[in-house]
Amino acid sequence: MTTTHSLPTPGMPLLLKSAAVATWHELPRVAALGLLSLAAAVPLAVSLLSAAPPWISGVASVPVALLATGLSAYAAAIARGEKPTLRVGLRLDPVLGLSLSAIATLLTEGIALGGAVAIAATVLAAVALVLAPYALAYAAVRGRRGLIAWRGAAILVAFRPGAALTVLALCCIGGFAVVASAGTLAVVLPCILSVFACAVVGDLLATIDGMSR
């Protein structure tokens, strides 16, 4: 089933603005999901600050990765113009979430090994960073669960690589903003970026579907 967004589509800036406005209208529930995500990130933060082995950090990242799939489902509903309940944000995709955590752990381990392995792992990490936001958004917008989301993400990135890089760049900027705000923006910013990513993916899917008719 193809589900597209109801946000305006003239360009990336307007999509981002619309995502922020749409998220603001759902602020209480968005804040609740954000606080839940922050709580889930505590074990990961502790493991990173204590320089724990990568596999421990990998295990600690599982709750965050799982909640990211739920947040994407919630964001996709907002992008469609709906008013989702908190239950939507708790519809987790275990397979996709675990794959995100496993990929991050394996690539971190590879980079730590140094040499040619580290170079290969770094390249793969860059690819994974581009694909991950699209995989989450594709799974939420299309309603496709599991590893098939990675295939969908790869197709969309190949179709419009510039859009994927824009989404990634905004995610990186958002990460810096969260750090600069001492974590305050982590309550709402991830949802805004997720709504934006879902709107972009919905737009791309609508374009591809239109071309195939």
Write the layout of secondary structure elements.
Elements: H1 12-24, H2 27-49, H3 54-79, H4 86-89, H5 94-113, H6 115-142, H7 148-159, H8 161-180, H9 189-212
Features:
mainly alpha, globular, 213 residues
Written account of the structure:
Helices cover 80% and strands 0% of the residues. It has helices at residues 12-24, 27-49, 54-79, 86-89, 94-113, 115-142, 148-159, 161-180, 189-212. The relative contact order is 0.16. With 213 residues, it is mainly alpha-helical. The two termini are 15 Å apart. α1 packs across α9, α3 (54-79) crosses α5 (94-113) and α8 packs antiparallel against α9. The chain has nine helices and no strands.
* Estimated structural class: mainly alpha
Uncertain spans, ≥5 residues at pLDDT below 50?
A: 1-9
Name the beta content range: under 5%
The number of distinct β-strands equals: 0
In short:
Helix content is 80%, strand content 0%. The protein is mostly helical and 213 residues long.
